[in-house]
Amino acid sequence: MTVTITVTHDQKETPLVVSKDKPLVGALREARLIVAPCGIGKCGKCKILCETDPTDEEKNHLTPMELEAGVRLACYTWPSEGMHITIADRQDLKVLTQFRASEYALDPALTKTPFQAPAPAILDQAPDLDRLMTSIGTCTHQLSLAQLRKLPDFLRRHQFSGYALLHQGAFVGYSDEADHLGLIVDIGTTTVAGMLVDLNTGKTVAVNGFHNAQAPFGADVMTRIQYTMEHGIAPLHTAIVEQLNTLLVGLLTECEASDVSLIALAGNTTMMHLLCGLTPEFISKAPFIPATLSAMQMPARDLGLLSDGRAFLLPGVSAYIGADIVAALLATGAVGKGKNFLLTDIGTNAETVLYADGICYACSAAAGPCFEGANLSCGMPGQPGAIDSVFKANDGVGITVIDGRKATGLCGSGVIDAVALLLDEEALDATGRLRHQGSLAEAIEGEKNTIQFNLTDKVFLSQKDIREVQLAKAALRAGIEILMQEAGITCNEIDTLYLAGGFGSAIHPESASRIGMIPHGLLNKISVLGNAASFGALRYITEENGLDTADAIRHHTRHVELSAHKSFSMEYMNRMMFTED
């Protein structure tokens, strides 16, 4: 049985038909009206305004002030006919589109060349395709059936002239425009970043980014995989395809262009599966087997994208070392250059790669979502209103807030700063226990399990939050130590530590070192890459031998499965302590 409710969101009202027999969270997620990190009533972040009596679970998750104001949780709210709920206006998430670029020789995977084929005649009855291929000097093609269907009309409308797209000598597409543009997309779990580039010069001509449209189905890959197992892949596949089409149209409109020659796509293994409509179910179950990790090339329309260009999907290494990490390795420009380096992309799954003596050692540590603001009392993504840095001030605690707004929460970089400051001021011991002492004593209230560090009158870091940070940083650091053991090297033999992704670009390395998240010996060797996946995907399709280099990385990377490593448990326990070394 269904009922109709009214949802007020983003300053508009929307009627919504929902099942009467299920909590509201599922319907609100499917309608993409709310982001529920867990979807099962544990995180307490699916807040709505609703006139219902609070449940015991809501009383545990919400403050008395919130309960009095009518704040409820969608996971525990059952719909009734005519119910009216309000969802807080959505804020724009800060999407990292910048990256640290470096020079390299341009050699685009696709070349665009003008052609002028002779018109057919009674004594020249060659088929249209053969006629065109002869004029551009090739004897092979990879056109789709849809492209072939359009070819006769295209040639006659343009007097048998135009521009041909070639890949490794094969004819793969045609156009009536001289512009040679590419769309580069980093499909992150949290955000989707896209940039339009001139393939002849490698220069970026337009950028944009969004919150990943799949977020309402789960905040991380595991909850999204669980959703597909219960409801099918179609909703998540459709969500990302529609978003990529919106991204493409917006960037083309900005540049007054009609289409791109190619689209390069990188993301973690689950994101790539959902893009392709492949089941990600077995990624989540031991022994963690993806459907494929191979690089793929196809007409973009085969993916549902509104382009006559060609899609290039980067390869991955394993279920949890995806195409985004291969792209990040390409972005360093350091593979095969004879120097040892460490690359880490810190997120829910902290992917780390150690390149030593010509071999890539890679692992993925389940760091949990706390670095991205989830599962913390006042945690939030890096969006306006988030405290992104914490420091000692003359009058106690100093903070900075994204966009200079009033603080409404705490994002990952602020969390790391806060923990480091507590350690420096002796208000937090090495075991992770908060205590009333040192110069920050006045900002610490409560006892034992209720003790908390107040950053503002509404934003705080609790004892439980600090335990979450301990678990996350221990997993990341243990992974780094295991890789160094496998390679038989020490920090002294590593030339560079590359930090990739939004969180890696935002954290203060001194704070990360202070809490023991990264080795102190690498503190002066850090290079921040920014959106390395985007730059790596760009290099993939514009650098000489970029496609071959990526495939070589895939086939010559040694994946270290931490859960099966004999030393991981001990290393993990050792790194739980907040010590700088």
- Work out the strand percent: 15-25%
**Which CATH C-level class of the largest domain is it?**
Alpha Beta
Helix percent band: 25-40%
Largest sheet: 6 strands, mixed
> What is the total number of structural domains?
5
Number of helices: 16
What gyration radius follows from the Cα positions, in whole Å?
A: 26 Å
Number-wise, the strands total 26
Description:
Helices cover 29% and strands 24% of the residues. It is built from 16 helices and 26 strands. The protein is of the alpha/beta class and 581 residues long. Helix 9 crosses helix 14 (532-542). The strands form six sheets. A six-stranded mixed beta sheet has the order 11-10-9-12-14-13, with helices on both faces. Strands 25-24-15-16-17-26 form a six-stranded mixed beta sheet, sandwiched between helices. The chain is globular. It folds into five domains: 2-86, Ubiquitin-like (UB roll) (Roll); 110-175, Roll (Ubiquitin-like (UB roll)); 184-313, Domain of unknown function (DUF4445) (Nucleotidyltransferase, domain 5), CATH 3.30.420; 333-369 and 470-574, Nucleotidyltransferase, domain 5, CATH 3.30.420; 383-455, no CATH class. A hairpin with a 3-residue loop joins strand 15 (341-345) and strand 16 (349-356).
